[in-house]
């Protein structure tokens, strides 16, 4: 019998009305803003009312560097959440919303897989509750107001060559990376170079995901630097007087979205900054609210632990006063074999030697995660082609690195398959041995923070920064931004900036191409190697296979 596809499984889900899911969490119906019957936003009044409750335990799910073989980080996050509920713990899941660009590009939808999914899957991978549209609109409003200010006399004396606020669209569109705007004569303003990033790379997205409330949101938006004058002094969003209207556009988008898993367990799906160019975590608002409503909150950070987990610890936890109790690092036999040099077409053939050869990538992630003072468990996300000998090879390797690896079969069996992982997570969390700390202090100079991550996390010899970049960092320190954390923008496929360099490479340097100040979000973006803030579509985009069938159902999204 053929396996059902993820979307078929999601479509067959026995969903409960979202009002009932909210009631189980203690959220009264009048504090839910429903979008249909299966998704709702939680009111700000309710969130304000639970702040004096104690926090549950926070569990971070991260992974090895992604490979084309697939790791299943979100699938494991969902499976673990279901597993914790199944063994009698009150657990919630917090993940990011999917971006339209990648959905129609390389990767398709993002809401878990198999028997470990969050539903409604189609909605979550399309317009959902409109959060990303609101972010795109707020960002676009500021873009329009900057050019309008210049058009009507430029009282702020903005240097049109130094407008740093780019435009955004939630689509992979390489043709927009670098454009010339305001062509066509006097009525259209002053021609200048600009470009588009993808919406999830917008500083507005980062701010929405780090803001504690609407007042904090408005203050952070106002603090964004949008341009510089000829004397290099910054022009802020608040100087353009756009932050009030932007906050109005983002008012509903700030509220977490409540949905459910296939097993009717609650999940917040909210926010979605890219993990290779932004900080890659769902919103602080969703995570902190979930911690007031559940005993365990399972959340994820994007891509491998060198990007997602590092930023979760050094940016999100630092900003929000959070501390994870346990970190789960997801690996697969298939990915270990790929790191060990096996081609994708050959992954179904047993090769214990290739598994062993690929394990150093996992080992380095375990060491890195432990350096934050948090206990680590490895989840081996089970695939049907895995052999017992291959699984055993990973378990042995992990135990030599002072951690335990647990085989989890949530994709195939749901919570029944993730119960062992859930038990191990609770054992570590309830032992309460986490002594979490970020790996660098606030007061460390910015250039040293960059070097610290490159050397300690990536194991590079050094970060290469030319004098222009060092001078830029120094000038930001002089302006009072020296205490900010750094947000590394690099390829997700390798510890290095070379996406083809798998495993645990050494003897390389990290070239820093440019640095950008996200003064509102509160971090410095460090662009390394050939990273793009506007992805392109592949030769054959997923969009070519997405359509409505004769029954009006969506096909090809996942």
The shape is: globular
DSSP helix fraction: 25-40%
Counting DSSP E segments of at least 2 residues, the number of strands comes to: 25
Identify low-pLDDT runs.
Answer: none
For the sheet with most strands, the description reads: 12 strands, mixed
Give an account of the 3D structure.
The protein is an alpha/beta fold and 558 residues long. Helix 4 (73-86) packs across helix 18, helix 7 (131-151) packs antiparallel against helix 11 (243-250) and helix 9 (214-222) crosses helix 11. It has three domains: 47-126 and 259-431, P-loop containing nucleotide triphosphate hydrolases (Rossmann fold, 3-Layer(aba) Sandwich), CATH 3.40.50.300; 142-249, Domain 2, N(10)-formyltetrahydrofolate synthetase, CATH 3.30.1510; 446-528, Formyltetrahydrofolate synthetase, domain 3 (Roll), CATH 3.10.410.10. It has 20 helices and 25 strands. Strands 1, 2, 3, 4, 5, 6, 14, 15, 16, 17, 18 and 19 form a twelve-stranded mixed beta sheet that branches. A four-stranded mixed beta sheet has the order 20-22-23-21. A three-stranded antiparallel beta sheet has the order 7-12-13.
Summarize the structure.
The protein has 558 residues and is of the alpha/beta class.
How do the helices and strands line up, and which of them pair or pack?
Blueprint: H1 6-11, H2 18-24, E1 32-34, E2 40-42, H3 44-49, E3 57-63, H4 73-86, E4 91-95, H5 100-104, E5 112-113, E6 116-119, H6 121-124, H7 131-151, E7 158-163, E8 167-169, E9 179-181, E10 192-194, E11 196-198, H8 203-210, H9 214-222, E12 225-229, E13 234-236, H10 237-240, H11 243-250, E14 257-261, E15 266-269, H12 284-293, E16 296-300, H13 305-320, E17 326-331, H14 333-339, H15 352-370, E18 376-381, H16 388-400, E19 404-408, H17 410-413, H18 415-431, H19 446-456, E20 462-464, H20 467-478, E21 486-489, E22 509-518, E23 523-528, E24 547-548, E25 554-555
Parallel strand pairs: 3-16, 3-17, 4-15, 4-16, 8-11, 17-18, 18-19, 20-22, 21-23
Antiparallel strand pairs: 1-2, 2-14, 5-6, 6-14, 7-12, 9-10, 12-13, 14-15, 22-23, 24-25
Helix pairs in contact: 4-18, 7-11, 9-11, 14-15, 15-16
